[in-house]
Amino acid sequence: MRYVVLALLGMLGVLLSGSIATGVSIAGISVDILLLMVTCVALLDKTSAPVLFAAGAGLCMDILYSTSLGVYALPYAATAALVMLLSRNIKRFNVLLVFASGAGGYLLKELIMIAIVYILGARFSVPRMVVREILPAAAVAGGLNLLAYMVFSRLYQLSWMRPRAKHAGDDLI
């Protein structure tokens, strides 16, 4: 059941991030709702499901909103993998860790996207973009990650949403 919920949340995140959230901004900074979902799932789920969730949602973003595959899928999957690996052994999260995972996840995602787009041929000033656009957006993403973490932690308290303690045939890994 939790994989169905993750797939539905991924589709909701793709639609919200690609269509509605592009018009909504906080002080000129657009909100990446899918990244908030990815980091929260990576913090709460200790299996490989967050990486698959991020890669699947990113692939849907690539299909719907990009001209080449991997521009969204690779950064989201790498961010989920890094957040999951760094927080795997932590039993209890504090506010600073949740904020840092949101801000650091946004920064990592944007830096990977900059590298991909630069390789594809776009030319722009990377230091100017980092200072004027990415760092303020990372701070907003960290703050919004606190709110998203509260919602997702409530969701993961439900018995059908928690990962199984033992490996079962229908679990991924």
Task: Report strand %.
Answer: under 5%
**DSSP helical segment count:** 6
- What is the helix fraction of residues, given as a range? 55-70%
Strand order of the largest sheet: 1-2
Distance N to C terminus? 16 Å
Summed over residues and divided by their number, the pLDDT gives a mean of 85
Spatial extent as radius of gyration:
16 Å
Question: How would the global form be characterised?
Answer: globular
Largest sheet, strands/sense/barrel: 2 strands, antiparallel
Query: Regions with pLDDT < 50 over 5+ consecutive residues?
Result: none
Salient structural properties:
globular; 2% strand; mainly alpha; 6 helices; 68% helix; 173 residues
Characterise this structure.
The longest helix is centred in the C-terminal third of the chain and has 30 residues, at 126-155. The chain has helices at 2-20, 33-44, 49-65, 73-87, 95-119, 126-155, and strands spanning 25-26, 29-30. Strands 1-2 form a two-stranded antiparallel ribbon. The mean pLDDT is 85. 68% of the residues lie in helices and 2% in strands. The protein is mainly α. Strand 1 and strand 2 (29-30) form a beta hairpin.
